[in-house]
Structure formats: structure tokens, C-alpha cells
Amino acid sequence: MLHGPIRIVILVGSHGRGSNMQAIIEACVSGYIPGEVVGVISTAESSPALTWAAGQGIPTLVAHASGSESFDAALLSLIQSLNADLVVLAGFMKLIGAHVVRAYSGRMMNIHPALIPSFCGKGMFGERVHQAVLDAGVRFSGCTVHFVDEHYDTGPIILQAVVPVEQDDTAETLAGRVLEQEHRIYPEAVKLFAEGRLVIEDRRVRIVSR
Ligand code: GRF
To answer: How sure is the predictor about 131, in pLDDT bands with cuts at 50, 70 and 90?
Structure first.
């Protein structure tokens, strides 16, 4: 079990807006999360999220395949160089290789902007998710924080939040309502992890009291 402040590494996409990353960084700075974001990694130097993090004085790194080293090997060595206790995916678009996932099993999280196991999987990201929700006519959507396994959006679920789908919603208005909840439950999930309160039992995550 972890004690004291944990070392958090956040992975963001090459076009990442970084609002979940910001929510987690702010929650660390305010003391809500007993941890520190020790680095942000992206797949491109030009990532807006990376620029924002650098402006806060947080070390930023770019992972890319070079020479004989594969992308996953490069990513793993960057994460290891930062001595991460927890790896947080926030808008990171690439499927992470099995080798990296295994190295951080139970210590790597992602957030998905729908209620898993619906409206998720390969190719389900961004506006597509919310449009699929609207097209299906469901009354509720939401977001899910889960541990990462070797497939898209199938790892054990940590927290979910539900939002109503309104009659006149567009993918954009629905995305905004879901995002508000993302900014609430992602820091909460990281806090629970940092407090050592998440126990994975097969497919289920038990939240233990302090
Ligand atoms: C969020 O909607 C998240 O659920 C998904 O990617 C988006 C990232 O947004 N995985 P941001 O970069 O955190 O603003």
C-alpha cells in the first residue's frame, strides 16, 4: 500500500487540450490529491497540453520511436525515468502496448467520456462518442475512470458519473456536461489511489475506507 505523496505521470495526446490534466495538477497543488505531477508525456512537442504543463514548470517529455527502439519501449523508459507510482492517461490516443501495461498493471488509469461498457472501444473517441449516444436515444450518459488493460476501455472500473441526455442536446453540449463530471471524478479517482484505497478484485474495484 502507498503512503505519502505519490509521483504521478500524465500522458496527453498530440492535439491534447489537457483539461483533465489541468484538473489533476490543480488538485495536487491544492492538496486534495496527496501527490505530485512529476512529468507530462506526449507524442508531439506541439501538444497544447504539453505547452501548458511546461508553463507550470512541470517537466515535459515527448515519446517517439527512434532507431531500433519501438514507441512502447521509448514510452516505458520515459515513465520509468520519472519514477512514476501512477500513470494517468488524459486524452492519450494511442493504444499502449501490453509490455508497458503489464509493467504498470493496477497503476495506470484512463478516463472515457461515456458509461463503459457502452459507447467505447476502438475508434470511439471525442465527438464520435457523444454522437453515438445521441443516435442511440439513451436518456443518460456520463464518464468512466478505469484501470488500463491491454484493450481499449475494458479495464476494471474505478468511478463513474452519470449525466442526463437533454432533448435538444448536440454532441457538443453533451460533451460539455460530461466534461464537467470528468473534472470531478478523475481527481477523485487519483486521490483514492494515492490514499491506497483502491483494491482490484478480478474485474471489480473495491473502494476501502481509510
Ligand atoms: C476527454 O473527454 C476524455 O474523456 C477523453 O479525452 C478527452 C480529453 O480531454 N479520454 P482533455 O484533453 O482532458 O480536455
So the answer is: very high
Tell me whether residue 130 is one of the annotated catalytic residues.
Answer: no
Q: Is the pLDDT of residue 1 over 60?
A: no
β-bridge pairing 204-207 and 60-62: unpaired
Identify the pLDDT of residue 94: 86
Kindly list the distances between the CA atom of residue 7 and the CA atoms of 40, 67, 91, 193, in Å, as whole numbers in the listed order: 11, 29, 19, 11
What does the pLDDT read at residue 50?
96
**Closest to 206 measured CA to CA, from 157, 153, 161, 162:** 157
**Separation of CA 67 and ligand 1 centre (Å):** 31
pTM over 0.90? The answer is: yes
- Protein residue closest via CA to atom 9 of ligand 1: 91
Pocket test for ligand 1, best of 42, 179, 186 (most atoms within 8 A of CB): 179
